[in-house]
Write a structure and sequence with these properties.
Number of strands: 3
Shape: globular
Structural class: mainly alpha
Order of helices and strands: HHEEHEHHH
Distance between the termini: 40 Å
Largest sheet: 3 strands, parallel
Radius of gyration: 20 Å
Length: 141
């Protein structure tokens, strides 16, 4: 039995749609060269007027400058959660409507990411403390 059938004696409830201010979080997944960055920017142009792109792909964010106006923050290794947060906050503080992160996978598996750190900790037999540190970093505390 789904949620609609439990409301008002089993009858679905029809209501007027209301526009609410919400933030879209969208992930595009595909192999290298499949158009993720280009597609993300095209979506961004439709969503907001002031667009920022966080680039961890060695300058590939600049390849699409002919599509429209957007600004870029380039992140360099190590790709820590703190660096991503700082870049996002910088765009937010500057009043950007839409932020594209290209690529978030480095935050996990790139140099400085938790997967790499956990692997290094295993090699050094420091797993318990290192994993606690990684969990703290991801929780933002």
């Amino acid at each position: 039995m789904n949620e609609l059938s439990r409301v008002q004696g089993g009858s679905p409830v029809i209501r007027k749609a209301e526009r609410r201010k919400a933030k879209l979080r969208l992930a595009l997944v595909g192999p290298t060269g499949s158009g993720k960055t280009c597609s993300a920017l095209q979506l961004a142009f439709g969503l907001g007027a002031k667009i920022g792109l966080i680039d961890t792909e060695h300058g590939s964010g600049d390849l699409y400058a002919d599509l429209g106006d957007y600004d870029v923050i380039t992140l360099e290794p190590p790709y820590t959660v703190a660096k991503y947060r700082e870049a996002i906050r910088a765009f937010e503080d500057a009043g950007y409507d839409t932020i594209v992160v290209d690529s978030l996978s480095h935050a996990w598996s790139g140099e400085g990411g938790p997967a790499r750190q956990a692997g290094a900790a295993r090699e050094q037999r420091q797993v318990p403390q290192q994993l606690r540190d990684l969990a703290r970093d991801h929780a933002g505390t």
